[in-house]
Amino acid sequence: LMMECMQDDKTALTNFTKLPRSHQNYYSKYIDSAKTDATKAKRIAQVVKAMHYNWTYAEMLRESRSAAYDG
User: Fold this and answer.
1) Cβ atoms within 10 A of the Cβ of 31, count?
2) pLDDT digit string (tens) for 17-62?
3) Which among 7, 39, 49, 52 is least surrounded, fewest beta carbons within 10 Å?
4) DSSP string, 3-65
5) Model pLDDT, residue 22
6) Cα 4 vs. chain centroid, distance in angstroms?
7) Backbone angles phi and psi of 36, in degrees to 5
Protein backbone atom coordinates (compact mmCIF):
# COMPACT_ATOMS: atom_id res chain seq x y z
CA LEU A 1 0.00 0.00 0.00
CA MET A 2 2.82 2.41 0.83
CA MET A 3 4.43 1.81 -2.56
CA GLU A 4 1.11 2.48 -4.28
CA CYS A 5 0.88 5.82 -2.52
CA MET A 6 4.42 6.69 -3.56
CA GLN A 7 3.52 6.19 -7.22
CA ASP A 8 1.89 9.64 -7.03
CA ASP A 9 5.13 11.23 -5.79
CA LYS A 10 8.04 10.21 -8.00
CA THR A 11 10.57 12.04 -5.81
CA ALA A 12 9.45 10.05 -2.76
CA LEU A 13 9.55 6.80 -4.71
CA THR A 14 13.03 7.49 -6.06
CA ASN A 15 14.39 8.41 -2.63
CA PHE A 16 12.82 5.34 -1.05
CA THR A 17 14.21 2.92 -3.62
CA LYS A 18 17.69 4.39 -3.17
CA LEU A 19 17.66 3.43 0.52
CA PRO A 20 19.33 0.20 1.62
CA ARG A 21 16.84 -2.62 2.16
CA SER A 22 17.37 -2.50 5.93
CA HIS A 23 16.35 1.19 6.00
CA GLN A 24 13.32 0.50 3.84
CA ASN A 25 12.33 -2.11 6.40
CA TYR A 26 12.35 0.51 9.21
CA TYR A 27 9.64 2.42 7.39
CA SER A 28 7.64 -0.70 6.48
CA LYS A 29 7.72 -2.01 10.04
CA TYR A 30 6.72 1.42 11.36
CA ILE A 31 3.61 1.30 9.18
CA ASP A 32 2.84 -2.38 9.82
CA SER A 33 3.03 -1.92 13.60
CA ALA A 34 0.01 0.40 13.55
CA LYS A 35 -3.01 -1.18 15.17
CA THR A 36 -5.74 0.74 13.37
CA ASP A 37 -6.30 1.60 9.73
CA ALA A 38 -6.40 5.29 10.63
CA THR A 39 -2.96 5.09 12.19
CA LYS A 40 -1.63 3.15 9.21
CA ALA A 41 -2.94 5.82 6.86
CA LYS A 42 -1.34 8.57 8.96
CA ARG A 43 1.99 6.74 9.00
CA ILE A 44 1.92 6.13 5.25
CA ALA A 45 1.41 9.86 4.74
CA GLN A 46 4.34 10.57 7.08
CA VAL A 47 6.62 8.17 5.22
CA VAL A 48 5.69 9.57 1.80
CA LYS A 49 6.37 13.10 3.07
CA ALA A 50 9.67 12.00 4.62
CA MET A 51 10.77 10.35 1.41
CA HIS A 52 9.78 13.41 -0.61
CA TYR A 53 12.09 15.55 1.55
CA ASN A 54 14.69 12.77 1.79
CA TRP A 55 14.48 12.69 5.59
CA THR A 56 16.00 9.93 7.66
CA TYR A 57 13.78 7.77 9.85
CA ALA A 58 14.80 9.81 12.91
CA GLU A 59 14.08 13.10 11.14
CA MET A 60 10.64 11.82 10.16
CA LEU A 61 9.82 10.86 13.74
CA ARG A 62 11.14 14.15 15.08
CA GLU A 63 9.05 16.14 12.60
CA SER A 64 5.90 14.16 13.34
CA ARG A 65 6.32 14.66 17.08
CA SER A 66 6.94 18.39 16.72
CA ALA A 67 3.86 18.69 14.49
CA ALA A 68 1.80 16.94 17.16
CA TYR A 69 2.95 19.49 19.75
CA ASP A 70 2.26 22.42 17.43
CA GLY A 71 -1.10 21.15 16.89
Assistant:
1) 18
2) 999 999 999 999 999 999 999 999 999 999 999 999 999 999 999 9
3) 7
4) HHHHTT-HHHHHHHHHS-HHHHHHHHHHHHT-SSHHHHHHHHHHHHHHHHTT--HHHHHHHHH
5) 95
6) 13
7) -120, 160
